[in-house]
């Protein structure tokens, strides 16, 4: 697989450029900003590339293994405020961490009055969203000082609607606020304001979304997402510790892996950049020379068709047997309708010659199961069979139909692991093949699939 | 595979017996009865086993390669009658064939007056069903004479309802008419009477149905179906000339093969015997020592999981792509509903992570295709893709989930044949796996699957 290191190219084939000047958004996660030492790494990374124009920091993560993340301390404060308890311990801990950082970084700023104002606001009844967003807000001030960059109050540019999503008006606000191409800006992640001007947070991990919105707003060439791993692994490293890093993956492939259980960026952090075809680069602050994972609108899959494997447990299969079921034009519809009427999504529908199987998530099913079985029996079928504890595992990639040995390698590898196949659903998309196995075979299935991939 | 020759056992494990006396129904096809020479083989077969109590003959088939089947001659007569043309040529040919047979068999019967009456009835406007059923009716007389058996007028015992199916009252009529356990009976196949007493035929090949009804009526131990092949082949011999004969197969497996395109017994010839768990034995009149194929309620599949392969061309796949389709609880139902509203059966429904595919028969689709695409687009999907000219090929058997190397062998064999897989649908039943391939790959797919079966 050929990998093109984004910062080394000016007019790369997959990176769009504004004339010859590239524009990058760099978001840094909590572990990248947890200590002065980490902050210095971040500073060096940013200073190495002038095209990193907007920096989006998270709140500081754990400074050491037994530490508590700033955001978790803020959540504790919120809990104590609710119960009218003193939160001095937690607050002092937060203040101490920030002050230590400022001192260790030899920064010539004093956040005492800002911290005092914040505490006063909390004491006078500020809401949860205000409280938990202070980690990013204060950290943003420190990072801006460290970089000599302009701090942008997220509340001024990120507008969050009543359902907690970014309002499209944010794009225009970010663009006009960060319009000076000679300047570098720091926008704290995770929060903004609602249309009434109150601080609102995005869902946890929302700094990824802030970065994506900034990338869209400025039509960036690249959205860098700096974290503590050198990109996404091809599969869960708890199952395959030696899993290879994904070098290139498309938005769609990433979403497929995420849907099937992989913990990657959430959809709202992808759609704003996907909309403009902006690549995302997952990078490691602690190993800045690693290429990381590049998420692209499309990729050359000629040498690497498969990009990842993920799996989810907790599915139940309802199988209906009916002789001559194909003579009954309305049977499939009635079956699907029955599940819909119980508010259960038919994740997969399989069919044999005289059978139909509907695979659904077990979550939320228990209380509805008997009613569903009853409903299926009422369709005058010969037999209803329920098989639970199924795990669905997906192999995600591109052009699977045209990889002649893929199925052979896949199924021989699964057989070698001793996996009993409960289902195979392939053909709707040639970008994924979904197999069903016993939950007990979940890890073995992922191992089997992983081993079957020729080049990794 | 162990095969138990039915006529050699008295209390076989799978053959039920009346005390120690077995009871068999033997149906003979047209080629088995086409000439005096063939008739003698039939006589020898029947006389070799006293338990063959009811014999069901078809009309004589072709006596030689360029000959015409009696039933086809009768159809020509019907056509000529409709157009007020003389049918003497065809009639004389029929009379000559029957008279030659009687003479060659040295039978002491004279059917002249019966033949005369028949011709008169045709001339005076007898219906199509009367005309085309005369092959069986007259042949039954000859066979009864040859065997010294009692001729049973099919019209007296087989009652056919207005939709051309056997009325259940037939069972009781056959049972009481053929109650003498010391006698052998000949019931001509293919026809009966309606409730108004008029001659009615079953669909073509209906003699199989007559035999099945007789087997059910007498709760036979075995229903023998004598033909000109030594049982069913595992797959289409035009594709695999060396295809092995199926030794044992269940009713369900047979139906699965038939549904997927294999030309075997039709459903109405199976349900009456399946209902009573009566095995069917497909035998070869020309090779009476061959075991043939035994169709059973269930079989021991421990040594032979796969029993056959069949395939049908002419499918089209409609694929709908919708980002986050799983968030739309009603999408699957709306899609299935759309096809139902166009009177199109969703044969298979496949799903990827953001895609759903509905596979339908092309037959009857052409005029509805554009409307369906329009309807799918109206569901606010991102993309609708139509792929036609797909062939579905099924591997039919038992216990596929527990055959660890089945998938490996199957897909490596398909890859070796150069088959590109368009779909795999497995898991609803562990008795069949259905794959989709380009129609151009149809024969290669069947070859690939056939070669992958370890023991045949």
Can you give a write-up of this model?
Chains A, B: It comes from Oceanispirochaeta crateris. Chains A, B: One of its GO terms (molecular function) is ATP binding. Chains A, B: Residues 393-451 form the Aspartokinase ACT domain. Chains A, B: It is an enzyme of class 2 (transferase). Chains A, B: Residues 22-284 form the Aspartate/glutamate/uridylate kinase domain. 2 copies of one chain form a homodimer. Chain A contains 15 helices and 16 strands. With 456 residues, the first copy, chain A, is α/β, with parallel strands linked by helices. The first copy, chain A, folds into 2 domains: 21-228, Acetylglutamate kinase-like (Carbamate kinase, 3-Layer(aba) Sandwich); 307-452, VC0802-like. In chain A, strand 12 and strand 13 form a beta hairpin. In chain A, helix 2 packs antiparallel against helix 3. The relative contact order of chain A is 0.10. Chains A and B meet through helix 10, strand 11, helix 12, strand 12 and strand 13 of A and helix 10, strand 11, helix 12, strand 12 and strand 13 of B.
How many independent structural domains of chain A?
2
Number of DSSP helical runs of chain A:
15
Q: Mind telling me which CATH architecture of the largest domain in chain A this is?
A: 3-Layer(aba) Sandwich
Structural class of chain A: alpha/beta
Unreliable spans of chain A are 1-19
CATH level-four homologous superfamily name of the largest domain in chain A: Acetylglutamate kinase-like
Mean of all residue-level pLDDT scores of chain A: 91
């Amino acid at each position: 697989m050929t990998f093109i290191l984004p910062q080394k190219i000016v007019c790369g084939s997959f990176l769009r450029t504004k004339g010859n000047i590239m524009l990058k958004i760099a978001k840094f996660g909590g572990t990248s900003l947890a200590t002065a030492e980490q902050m210095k790494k971040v500073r060096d990374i940013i200073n190495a590339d002038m095209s990193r124009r907007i920096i989006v920091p998270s709140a500081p993560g754990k400074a050491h293994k037994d530490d508590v993340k700033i955001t978790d301390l803020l959540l504790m404060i919120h809990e104590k405020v609710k119960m009218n308890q003193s939160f001095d311990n937690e607050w002092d801990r937060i203040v101490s961490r920030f002050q230590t950082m400022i001192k260790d970084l030899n920064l010539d700023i004093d956040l005492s009055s800002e911290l005092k104002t914040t505490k006063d606001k909390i004491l006078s009844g500020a809401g949860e969203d205000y409280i938990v967003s202070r980690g990013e807000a204060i950290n943003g001030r420190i990072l801006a000082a460290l970089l000599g960059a302009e701090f942008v109050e997220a509340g001024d540019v990120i507008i969050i609607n009543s359902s907690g999503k970014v309002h499209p008006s944010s794009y225009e606000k970010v663009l006009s606020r960060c319009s000076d191409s000679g300047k570098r800006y720091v926008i704290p992640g995770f929060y903004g304001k609602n249309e009434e001007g109150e601080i609102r947070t995005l869902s946890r991990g929302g700094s990824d979304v802030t970065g994506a919105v900034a990338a869209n707003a400025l039509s960036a060439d690249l959205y860098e997402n700096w974290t503590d791993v050198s990109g996404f692994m091809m599969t869960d490293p708890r199952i395959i510790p030696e899993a290879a890093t994904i070098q290139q993956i498309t938005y769609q492939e990433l979403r497929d892996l995420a849907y099937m259980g992989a913990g990657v960026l959430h959809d709202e952090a992808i759609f704003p950049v996907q909309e403009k075809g902006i690549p995302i680069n997952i990078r490691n602050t602690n190993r800045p020379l690693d290429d990381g994972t590049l998420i692209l609108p499309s990729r050359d899959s000629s040498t690497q068709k498969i990009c990842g494997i993920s799996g989810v447990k907790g599915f139940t299969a309802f199988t209906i047997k009916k002789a001559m079921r194909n003579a009954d034009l309305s049977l499939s519809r009635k079956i699907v309708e029955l599940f819909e009427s119980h508010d259960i999504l038919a994740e997969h529908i399989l069919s044999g010659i005289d059978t139909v199987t509907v695979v659904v998530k077990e979550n939320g099913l228990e209380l509805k199961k008997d009613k569903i079985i009853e409903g299926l029996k009422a369709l005058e079928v010969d037999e209803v069979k329920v098989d639970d504890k199924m795990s669905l595992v997906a192999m995600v990639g591109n052009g699977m139909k045209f990889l002649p040995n893929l199925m052979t390698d896949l199924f021989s590898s699964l057989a070698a692991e001793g996996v009993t196949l409960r289902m195979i659903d392939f053909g709707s998309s040639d970008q994924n093949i979904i197999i069903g196995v016993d939950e007990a075979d979940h890890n073995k299935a992922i191992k089997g699939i992983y081993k079957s991939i020729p080049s990794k």
